[in-house]
């Protein structure tokens, strides 16, 4: 379970301060499939980055099973990110010079774990890419690229998957496939949180949280 307690995030921009989050309270249950929606500039990405321990709140507590990550040093946050959290982005961020196999395996390298062929093959199969393991990202369709990114996000067995606009660059058919994968993962117990502008996707999440001007709408 993740609990956000009165999260505030303020950015400095020159002499201006931007209040990106203004007191967000949110409890996310283990295995939940949650959509975060709201207009551009509302604070969605900021919230996701705080959930992912990529950024720290200015104020407030971020509790993972009771452990507060707010104020933790970066060295500890890195560990939490690697062990507990998988990330998926709109832009995929695959490494062009590496095969699909090596892209999926990349987080293992950063965690100083050995490449586990079997595991990578299983993940590729789970996202329907078992026949693409030796391809380069440029040889894939957009949907295949995102499915590669999902497999990469799962290779460290995270408890939480965070997805920022996972279908933002995909057509309806490919968005459906991504949704089906996320749904299956959440049914298997993975806590899955996605930012989306896709109303159909948001409608099918177990819970939709709407953010506006740095606050969750009631
Ligand atoms: P959303 O994802 O809903 O579009 P963001 O979380 O990206 O919203 O941004 C919320 C607000 O914070 C916006 O006004 C944005 O310009 C500002 N912001 C986000 N990141 C930064 C940053 N690194 N530095 C300064 N301002 C930022
Ligand atoms: P998206 O809308 O796809 O979520 P954004 O365009 O809002 O992404 O933001 C992309 C990245 O730029 C994010 O990491 C965010 O923190 C950062 N960012 C957003 N607004 C600003 C800003 N005004 N100044 C600096 N960085 C920003």
Which stretches of 5+ consecutive residues score pLDDT under 50? Answer: none
Question: Which class best fits the helix and strand makeup?
Answer: alpha/beta
Strand numbers in spatial order across the main sheet: 6-7-8-3-9-10
Mean pLDDT: 95
Describe what this molecule looks like in 3D:
The protein is α/β, with parallel strands linked by helices and 218 residues long. It has one domain: Rossmann fold (3-Layer(aba) Sandwich). 34% of the residues lie in helices and 28% in strands. It contains seven helices and ten strands. Strands 6-7-8-3-9-10 form a six-stranded mixed sheet. Strand 1 (2-13) and strand 2 (16-28) form a beta hairpin. Helix 3 packs parallel to helix 5 (142-154), helix 4 crosses helix 5 and helix 5 runs parallel beside helix 6 (172-187). It is globular. The chain starts with a strand and ends with a strand. The model has no long low-confidence stretch (mean pLDDT 95).
What attributes does this structure have?
globular, 10 strands, transmembrane transporter activity, ATP binding, nucleotide-binding, Rossmann fold, binds adenosine-5'-diphosphate, 4-stranded antiparallel beta sheet, 218 residues, ABC transporter ATP-binding protein, P-loop_NTPase, alpha/beta, 6-stranded mixed beta sheet
